[in-house]
Write a structure and sequence with these properties.
31% helix, single chain, 278 residues, globular, mainly alpha
Length: 278
């Protein structure tokens, strides 16, 4: 569903990059969506999108936004799609084996959350300042990775909420260590409601914006270097001229959901969205 079939994120972890060519179009089948500003039509869970082709590719992939499907461009499975398709179900699609389709659709969102945790854990393990927790992060990564390769039954029995809480303890510690290296007082906006906030040119270097609602916020020209943005909602946020250098836990979907321009500085591991102003 993303505008890109592959991403440059985490070249050291290719299994954390969406590879639509090795997926059975699971995001276009398993997940529901409602007609809105994000989607041009209604679609029930387990029903193939009308734009899905026989080869499991999207027929309007290069013009999703113009066709009324911007919601598709801000979705990323972090490699869960090909994992479910090629590993969990051993390369047999829901078309080839319809009796397994329902289980495949149920496993996909679980796998997607596990791969998102893998992505964050990999991010944290790459932080030099987080060295005191590197061993624990590597152990957590290995355990999560092993779980993603288990059976459908095991995956469906996973308590994802509890697992998230466990991993988040390590991610929070890594964040604290990384942001502690930033000079000066750091702002704490964790979980804050900043919808539509006027933060133009704000000094937010090293700030915590974990889980903050920044929908339609004006962050143009703001300094978000080394800020923690895990789970922050950046839909329609203005990032024109914003400096996101070294920002922690930023994902491609977050950038795709926001507005930016060529002056926006983004982490090297991410791509500048095609719809951003030139």
């Amino acid at each position: 569903m993303s505008e890109h079939t592959t991403h440059t994120t985490h070249t050291a972890h290719p299994d954390l990059q969406a590879d639509c060519g090795n997926c059975f179009g699971l995001c276009c089948v398993a997940l529901p969506f409602a007609r809105s500003a994000d989607f041009a039509a209604n679609k029930a869970a387990g029903t193939p999108c009308g734009n899905l082709q026989e080869d499991f590719r999207c027929g309007i992939h290069d013009r999703l936004r113009d066709s009324g499907y911007p919601g598709c461009t801000v979705f990323d499975c972090f490699g869960a799609g090909q994992k479910v398709s090629q590993v969990t179900f051993e390369g047999r699609s829901w078309r080839e084996k319809p009796d397994s389709a329902r289980t495949m659709y149920e496993v996909f969102p679980v796998m997607r959350q596990l791969h998102e945790l893998l992505r964050y854990t990999a991010d944290a393990a790459d932080l030099a300042a987080a060295r005191p927790v590197h061993r624990d992060l590597r152990r957590a990564y290995d355990q999560l990775d092993a779980l993603t390769r288990d059976t459908p039954e095991t995956l469906l029995a996973v308590d994802v909420a509890a697992l998230r809480e466990e991993v988040n303890t390590l991610l929070l510690r890594a964040s604290e260590l990384a942001r502690a290296a930033v000079p000066g007082k750091k702002r704490n906006h964790r979980g804050a409601d900043l919808m539509g906030a006027r933060l133009r040119g704000a000094k937010l270097r090293g700030a915590s914006l974990r889980g903050a609602c920044l929908i339609a916020a004006d962050l143009s020209g703001a300094d978000l270097r080394t800020a923690d943005l895990i789970g922050a909602d950046l839909r329609d946020a203005n990032l024109c001229g914003t400096d996101l250098t070294g920002a922690l836990f930023v994902t491609q979907p977050q950038l795709n959901a926001a507005r930016g321009d060529q002056a926006t500085r983004i982490p090297a591991s991410l791509e500048r969205p095609a719809h951003w102003a030139s």
